[in-house]
Each structure stands twice: as structure tokens, then as C-alpha cells.
Amino acid sequence: MGRSSKDKRDIYYRLAKEDGWRARSAFKLLQLNDDFDLFNGVSRVVDLCAAPGSWSQVLSRKLIEERPENKDKVKIVAVDLQAMAPLPGVTQIQGDITKISTAHEIISHFEGEEADLVISDGAPDVTGLHDIDEYIQGQLLIAALNITTHLLKNGGVFVAKIFRGKDVDILYNQLKVFFSTVTICKPRSSRNSSIESFVVCQNYSPPAGYVPTMCNPLLVDPNQFKSLEGVNRIVVPFMACGDLSGYDSDQTYPLTTSIGGKEYQTLSPIQEPINPPYQTACLLKKTNGLASSDKTEQPQSRDL
Ligand code: SAM
Question: By its UniProt entry, which HAMAP family does this protein fall under (predicted)?
Fold first, then answer.
């Protein structure tokens, strides 16, 4: 899809470039913050699965740029498998959130203190096979919860992406073991056509005697929940968040309309990914170097 047709189809993609965000996901965190006041009194934050970095940008702007008096107090640590371009006030770790070594590296940046807030927008590469995608997403959420139990202070907040699929109540129950309040939310900038939602887990209070481990995070037996039916199966609290009179992520807005009084111009992305894993494939495709049974029939791609 060309840049201007994506601009037309996706209002948040376009607004992200206008407002200087690296990805449209920034609006999801901003809208979650509008409803849950996530950044109030926060000085140590971990952004798990952070690349290309729009959530870290939100943290940097909200906690440092808008509150320069807190500059020396605030510590933001961002972790991703992928490299990420630098951001002011953000310490980056290129690592895997399923590894204990990553937890130790994060802790080393907090000088013995625990985090007030852990956020995770983790998503695996989508296969298109919905059951598998949903399962892997669930595993990534459990991995994020797992590493969070090493990092978060009692009373702290954890926010993570969740796919609202058929077993969402199992995941919800896992989270309820550790947090007194768990809410599933759909920011307005998250497309209605997607099962993506976010869990906002407040008041971290692990069970007495719980020892953080990376091995077996499941304190609730999923089979126990699968056997529950009807009213016995938990109805998970759900809320829509963000300004409902604001932009709708599923609607198409004409490019001729100016936003905020400015005439519309197609803009370049704010930050191209650094060394993305698909770089070699793109290069091979551009140079017609991908394996093919008959190369003369392969059209040259001009829209990568
Ligand atoms: N929140 C980011 C932003 O606003 O720019 C977007 C995050 S993107 C949707 C999901 C990220 O999860 C990818 O960059 C991917 O590399 C990362 N990821 C997936 N599995 C991971 C893992 N095991 N450890 C660390 N990062 C992981």
C-alpha cells in the first residue's frame, strides 16, 4: 500500500507522523493514560518490547520533557529483541524478555530500587493463523508478567497488550493472582477489526511466599478454568477508553480535510527501523534475488 493511501485509510498513522511519534501505537498509551493516570508519581519505568519506540517516546515526553524538574529522578529502561534508535532519557537494552539475564540487566539500571510501572506492547510476528497467533501472544503476555514479577514494586502498575480471544479469562485469572484490580481496555486508536486490547493491572500484590521465577509462571491451572461453564466462568471487566468523540481508527478520512487548521501533506516516517530482520529479504527482493522457479516471470517490486 502506498504511503498516501495508508494516510487516508488510517488517521492515527497520519497523526503519528504529524505529531512526531515513531508509530501510531503512541496514541494507545496516551489514551490508556487519559483513563488510568498511569504516569502520576512515577519515576522508574520499564518499557518491554519497545521497538521502534513510540511508547518510550511517550514516557520520555510525559515524564521528562513535560516535567524537567524530574529529569534526574526519572529512569526509563526500554527492552526489545530489535535495535532501536536512541531517545532522550531512555536507557536501551537489546534483549529477550523471556531471559533472566534481561531481568538482571534491567534491575542494574535502577540501583536497587523497583519499578513503579512496567508496560509491554509485545507482539510476535503474526502468522495469519489466528489460533497460533493468539496462543503466542498469550505466551508473550505471560513472559511479560513473569519478568515483571522480578521488577515491580508492591502497589505498582503493569500494562500489557492482550488478544481478546476465547481464553482471555484464563489470562485474566493469571493476572488476578498478582494484582488486585485488572481491567481490559480497548483504546480508540486500536482498530475495532483487531482483537487487540490492553490489560491495565493495578496494585501489584503477589501471593504471600511467591518467589519470582522465569520457569513456571502459571499459578492457576488453565484446565481448571476450561472446565468452568456459564456463570461460573468469569466475566472479564472491559472498558473502551480514549475520547469517544475523537478519531475513529476504523474510519477513512479524506486527505483534503485539514487537521488542526493545517493543510495536509504526506510526511515521511519519524524513524525508520534499525537493522530490521526483514532487511536482507527486502534487498534480495529489490534485486530479484529471491528464490523463484522462473525469474523471468517475477515482476520487479517498486513498492517495498
Ligand atoms: N510499543 C512499540 C512502539 O510503540 O513503538 C511497538 C512494539 S511492537 C508492536 C512489538 C515488539 O515486540 C517488536 O519490536 C518485537 O521485537 C518485540 N518482541 C517480541 N518478542 C519479544 C521478546 N521475547 N523479547 C523482547 N521483545 C520482543
Answer: RNA_methyltr_E, RNA_methyltr_E_TRM7
Extract the C-alpha cell encoding 152: 515491580
CA distances from 29 to 6, 57, 59, 62 (A): 21, 10, 9, 11
Q: Which three cell numbers stand for residue 29?
A: 498509551
Q: Strand pairing partners for 204?
A: 179
Q: State yes or no: ipTM above 0.90.
A: yes
Cα of 123 from ligand 1 centre, angstroms: 6
Residue 189 pLDDT more than 60? yes
Q: Annotated catalytic residue: which of 62, 161, 186, 262?
A: 161
The 10 Å CB-count burial string (b at 16+, else e) for 83-96 is ebeebebbbbbebe
Averaged pLDDT for residues 96-102: 93
- 28-86 pLDDT, tens digit per residue, is 999 999 999 999 999 999 999 999 999 999 999 999 999 999 888 999 999 999 999 99
Q: Ligand 1 centre from 111 Cα, in Å?
A: 25
Q: Put residue 231 in one of left, alpha, beta given phi > 0 → left and psi -120 to 50 → alpha.
A: alpha
Q: Whose CA is nearest to atom 18 of ligand 1?
A: 49
Please, what are the domains in the chain? 6-215 (3.40.50.150)
Beta-carbon contacts of residue 192 (< 8 Å; ≥ 6 apart):
186, 249, 250
How many degrees, rounded to 5, is the angle at CA 77 between CA 36 and CA 69? 70
What would the mean pLDDT of 236-261 be, rounded to a whole number?
Answer: 74
